[in-house]
Amino acid sequence: MPSSKKKKSKQKKAANVAAAASNLSVNDDPYEFDGEIAVEQLNNARAAVGLNRVDPRPKKVDRLPDYPACDGCGSEYSGTMECTSCGSAFYCGRSCQVNHWKNGGHKDECPTLKERSQSIAKTTVEKLMDESSPPLLRVQVLHDDPLDGSGPYKFAVDYGLHDAIYSAFLVDKEGVVENHTNENPLYRCCLTQWIMQSLFRGERISRQIHHGSNSFGKVDGGRILGYLHSHSDDGLQVWWKASLESAMVFLHSKISSTPDESFRCHQMARDIWAMWTHTFASKRASECILLTHDKAACLERATWMIKQMKPYLSKLQSAREGLDRNEVIQAYFNQVPAMIAAQCRELANVTSVDPVKLLKLRGLDKKMYENIAKPHGEDMIRRKRAADTARSRDILKRAGAFD
Q: For residues 95 and 340, what is the distance between their CA atoms, to the nearest angstrom?
């Protein structure tokens, strides 16, 4: 048994260490804790009182929680409470649950919601998976957004929704241009557009509650995360190639010679690539796309994505004037790489992703990227919203685009 003198000596050392540690300025949030700097300071304090060094704790990534949106208020990643009766509604807190029960209709729908959610989910997945049907008939099931709620979506995932999404992307990757030149109008449909704008869109509930509309300005990073994790080998690659192919449909000679079809297919490309800007404005979505393993993997994936865009961007740059209305698609093909590079810097401290080099931009194209696309992309990441006209003019002015 240690003597009283030795025990007091150890207690004194411990008290000195605790006092030294208490003087360190460390954020209460452990995800903001700068491990190397703080531990070095702590080791200096330990050395001063004769104690051994400790190894620095690896810095944690501040990842968003993996929860669905609240079915009461629509708040993202906050549905931590589940209705125990139906298992099909999720809430951020007791007040939202009570309000949704009393005023949101859940009291009446609860007894049958689970069965109805399962039925909707099963039908939706079956239709999306039906490869024998033309594309338009496959996606008609999404017309009224049946999987907006967290419950139906959860059951749809159980029924194989992620495989259905992958199958849809694969159709566009391999034949979206051919389908749009088909004589049968049931084939002139882009599955990728429907998947991204219906299943992957965010603010599904909050916009209905606060604005009474289906408009949105965000993606649901949790849903994107689920899909990518379910197809970790090539889920992103198939989705990315499908998006690139879909952006070229309006350039096809048969499409571009028909004004109405050209306009519709241009809008299709615009919808898809606007969604990609929202995707890389989302921290959750950017994490699951870029932070797969380590810095090397982040660099490799970002480089691959941007390099894949090069031949498609060249087609846009050489297209007949006026086909790409206001050069909107070309602008997206500059802004998205800028956002990918920005998120690599922000999330993984990878600074070597250079879209100018990867896309081989020169002259006016390089200037447009640096003065227009890059500042707009970085602003969108900061604000989580696309810039309106006034904001855009301010961005261009600060970037020196008017000089």
A: 38
Give the pTM. 0.80
C-alpha 167/C-alpha 139 separation (Å) is: 12
Lowest mean pLDDT among 110-114, 167-171, 243-247, 397-401: 397-401
| pLDDT tens sequence across 284-317 | 899 999 998 889 999 999 999 999 999 999 999 9
239: which 2 tokens?
A: 């989705």
The residue among 176, 193, 377, 168 whose CA lies nearest residue 272 is 193
Give residue-wise pLDDT tens across range 305-358. Answer: 999 999 999 999 999 999 999 999 999 999 999 999 999 999 999 999 999 999
From residue 335, give the alpha-carbon distance in Å to each of 95, 238, 358, 380: 41, 21, 14, 10
CB 113 within 8 A of CB 86: yes
Place of tokens 């008939």: 137
What is the distance, to the nearest Å, from the Cα of residue 16 to the centroid of all Cα atoms in its chain? 47
> What is the spatial distance between Cα 360 and Cα 311, in angstroms, rounded to a whole number?
11
3-state SS class at 290: helix
Residue whose tokens read 């299709």: 268
